[in-house]
Design brief:
This protein has helices at 26-33, 54-61, 80-85, 98-107, 110-135, 141-146, 148-158, 165-176, 183-206, 212-219, 225-256, 258-266, 271-281; strands at 37-41, 47-51. With 284 residues, it is mostly helical. It has one domain (7-16, 79-281): Cytochrome p450. The two termini are 28 Å apart. The protein binds protoporphyrin IX containing FE.
């Protein structure tokens, strides 16, 4: 890939999504213009209140009269991975004090583990980009970089051996890339992922290693098997879409703002700020 290559200039580039919902767009703007509190209809037909003002959101999130756990309902038409996200055993669906305890279990060792995988992850990123550059344009950035990189990062964090990464890649492709998949294929990919994680938990219980699963197993006194598995699966699910979306929309946004892209190329030390800005700019 030459440094002045811009995917948006390529004849196969699809401009129809310009200004689409992933990076703002009319629907998000309409909602925000409707005021900080508006009534919205959810996918299953129920209605809910949508808060878009920062102060309102902070107030509600910190007010114990609002409960996450009380709002958990079985997911309609759920494939198993969607069902995990609506499990009462999943971190995102708990209230304090249970939430505080489980969250601490998962996050206590996380910064150290992230630092440990960083050098290998940087090499992986370089390898994925080198593969794209070697093949030349056009390239499917999501399939070849934005999705596999989070998958590899999560596998490394959890201590999934490299020869088993393919199970995670297969699930991620079915879940996020392959729009043609059947419900059976999605279920099969997820079942293989779940069985594998279950085996990892059993192995780490018997013989702890240097990874996040071992940290959690070590730190938890009486973790129920279901809670542990549900939250590790939720961790895998939670880590994919947001990261892949950020990487893909970050690149797209820079391509749409060539002056900012040029600035970043000249002054790579601005990168941390650019990541923060992209996080604020991207709608997930
Ligand atoms: C660009 C990247 C990411 C963004 C923007 C993002 C955003 C968020 C947001 C907004 C929440 C709060 C959801 C809620 O309370 O309902 C959340 C929760 C969570 N995220 Fe992420 N996330 C990202 C990456 C990741 C990654 C890489 C992982 C794990 C590998 C992860 C795991 C989680 C977990 C476990 C929770 C639940 C935390 C809790 O309930 O205390 N996220 N994330």
């Amino acid at each position: 890939m030459t440094t002045d290559f811009n995917p948006l200039d390529h004849p196969e580039a699809d401009h129809s999504a310009a200004g689409g919902p992933a990076v703002g767009g009319p629907e998000a703007e309409r909602r925000e213009a409707g005021g900080p509190v508006s009534r919205v209809r959810l996918a299953d037909g129920r209605t809910a209140w949508l808060l878009t003002g920062h102060a309102d959101v902070v107030r509600v999130l910190n007010d114990p009269r609002f409960s996450r756990a009380a709002a958990v309902l079985p997911a309609p038409r759920a494939t198993p991975d969607v069902a995990i996200r609506s499990s009462p055993d999943a971190l995102i669906n708990m209230d304090p004090p249970r939430h505080t305890a489980v969250r601490r279990l998962i996050t206590a060792g996380l910064p150290r583990r992230v630092r440990a995988i960083r050098p290998r992850l940087a090499r992986t990123a370089t390898r994925l980009l080198a593969g794209i550059a070697a093949d030349g344009p056009p390239a499917d950035f999501v399939a070849r970089y934005a999705l596999p990189l989070p998958t590899i990062a999560i596998c490394d964090l959890l201590g999934v051996p490299e020869e088993d990464h393919h199970l995670f890649h297969a699930w991620a492709r079915v879940r996020y890339l392959d729009a043609e998949h059947t419900a059976e294929q999605a279920t099969e990919a997820f079942d293989r992922l779940r069985d594998h994680l279950s085996a990892i938990i059993a192995r780490r219980r018997a013989e702890p290693a240097e990874d996040l699963v071992s940290d959690i197993v070590r730190a938890s006194e009486q973790p129920s098997e279901g809670e542990l598995l549900t939250n590790l699966l939720a961790f895998v699910i939670a880590g994919h879409n947001n990261s892949a979306t950020l990487l893909a929309t970050g690149l797209l946004t820079l391509c749409r703002h060539p002056a900012q892209l040029g600035l970043l190329r000249r002054r790579p030390e601005l990168l941390p700020g650019a990541v923060e800005e992209t996080l604020r700019h991207t709608r997930f």
